[in-house]
Specification:
The chain contains 15 helices and 21 strands. By secondary structure, the chain is an alpha/beta fold. It has 3 domains: about 130 residues, Rossmann fold; about 240 residues, Alpha-Beta Horseshoe (pyruvate-formate lyase- activating enzyme); about 55 residues, Nucleic acid-binding proteins (OB fold (Dihydrolipoamide Acetyltransferase, E2P)). Helix 14 runs parallel beside helix 15.
């Protein structure tokens, strides 16, 4: 492919959570201001960035495996007028730091999540001065230094958007690396959040999902100088003209206060969906995990949320096989799943994360036992999910149309409960909120007809 001397292209591969997806878009925005355009073709990239996640087992090994393949591409370009620069960003970058440069000579730069606003400068230094590592926790607010996405950039990404309001974690669950890779809890200023929300909506976004490692720990000074929590922020965001839908993830039970529950009761723009991980149903295991809540407290929160918003769908996370988990402990997890009745839920076998307190526990569970328990748990969760989807058949609901479908004459939208919904294309255009009737379901989606 012919390329002018001023053209530069970046390829970003993203693993992990919604926060990483959001961070990748902000990295694109920062690099575009420095002359880079995004490409989906890694072979045509001048800069390749791997935005990594460290939350799952063997995450680092997946990065090194990818780097081995990318190294071959870089070697082919060596000595040409388009050398390739390779960078590792995200939580593996934060955790591994200089070790990445030691193990993989093809890597030119390693950048942690707190310093993405410095990315163009770091890329330039890597090209001109040699290999770079920046995994320090920035003193300055990175959001002040990363420009808002332009209207063109937002429109290219669709009618839904993430918006980070909080980063980091002070909870120190014993299984989790987030406090060590993302740092302490930091809340983004109210004014920045409202400004970005208005900018997104002005560019055509109709649904915003607020992001945070502990999103409901968000707090800050409001426009009147008084302290606010997430519930009050949602009321302010609901006033943004043109915004049709609001969501937020991921919440911690400890921060699920009355103000946030009341927002679910009062705000039509806030979708009836709550992702609230419990992780286990045994108080003994919850204490060992340092979750700072009991099973009964979690069940009570769910009860109060459902009283405030009866049609709400509950989602969660579960870990099986945490060190010391007995058969009775696992049965307590199954029981809390039965009590909660999830619309959807992520579930995993416990895996040791080096550097976390859980890695030091001696009573690790045999892999075969963990696998058997996970299979039983997932069977129950699948049964609940399918029952929830089946319960939607016959309902008339509003769907936000997001993209074209696989088949001609189809559009894909989202229900208020976050399910994918297939609708006839004559119902509306992308960006419209349309009223449809659910007539059938697939394993992971609903089928609708026009009303």
């Amino acid at each position: 492919m012919t390329q002018t001397s001023t053209e530069k292209k970046v390829f970003i591969k993203t693993w992990g959570c919604q926060m990483n997806v959001y961070d990748s878009t902000r990295m694109q925005d920062a690099l575009e201001a420095d002359g880079y355009t995004n490409t989906d073709d890694i072979t045509d990239a001048d800069l390749v960035l791997l935005n990594t996640c460290h939350i799952r087992e063997k995450a680092a090994e997946k990065v090194y495996s990818n780097l081995g393949r990318i190294r071959a591409l870089k070697n082919k370009r060596a000595g040409t007028n388009r050398p390739m620069t390779i960078g590792v960003t995200g939580c593996v970058a934060q955790a591994e730091g200089k070790e990445i440069l030691r193990r993989e000579k093809a890597v030119d730069l390693v950048v942690g999540p707190q310093t993405y606003h410095r990315l163009p400068e770091i890329v330039s230094k890597a090209k001109n001065e040699g290999r770079q590592v920046d995994t320090e926790y920035a003193v300055e607010d990175k959001f002040e230094y990363i420009p808002l996405a332009t209207k063109k950039q937002v429109q290219a990404r669709g009618v839904t958007s993430f918006l980070t309001v909080q980063e980091g974690c002070d909870k120190f669950c014993t299984f989790c690396v987030v406090p060590y890779t993302r740092g302490a809890e930091v809340s983004r200023p109210h004014s920045q959040i409202i400004e970005e929300a208005k900018s997104l909506v002005d560019a055509g976004v109709r649904e915003i999902t607020l992001l945070g490692q502990n999103v409901n720990a968000w707090h800050g000074l409001g426009p009147k100088g008084t302290e606010m929590r997430l519930g009050e922020l949602l009321y302010d965001l609901a006033e943004v003209d043109g915004l049709k839908r609001l969501r937020y993830v991921t919440s911690h039970p400890k921060d699920m206060d009355d103000g946030l529950i009341n927002a679910h009761r009062d705000l039509n723009v806030l979708m009836p969906y709550l992702h609230l991980p419990v992780q286990a149903g045994s108080d003994k295991i919850l204490k060992s995990m340092n979750r700072s809540h009991t099973a009964a407290e979690y069940v009570d929160i769910i009860k109060r949320v459902r009283e405030a918003r009866p049609d709400i769908a509950i989602s969660g996370d579960m870990i099986v096989g945490f060190p010391g988990e007995t058969d009775d402990d696992f049965e307590a997890t199954m029981e809390i799943v039965r009590q909660t009745n999830y619309a959807s839920c992520y579930s995993f076998k416990y895996s040791i994360r080096p550097g976390t307190p859980g890695a030091e526990l001696t009573d690790q569970i045999d892999e075969d036992v963990k696998s058997e328990r996970l299979q039983r748990l997932q069977a129950l969760l699948f049964e609940q999910q399918q029952a929830f989807n089946a319960g939607c058949i016959g309902k008339t609901i509003d769907v936000l149309l997001e993209k074209t479908g696989r088949e001609a004459e189809q559009l894909i939208g989202r229900s208020p409960w976050l399910q994918s919904v297939v609708v006839p294309s004559h119902c509306g255009t992308i960006g419209d909120t349309v009223t449809v009737k659910i007539i059938d379901k697939n394993t992971n989606s609903l089928i609708a007809e026009a009303v």
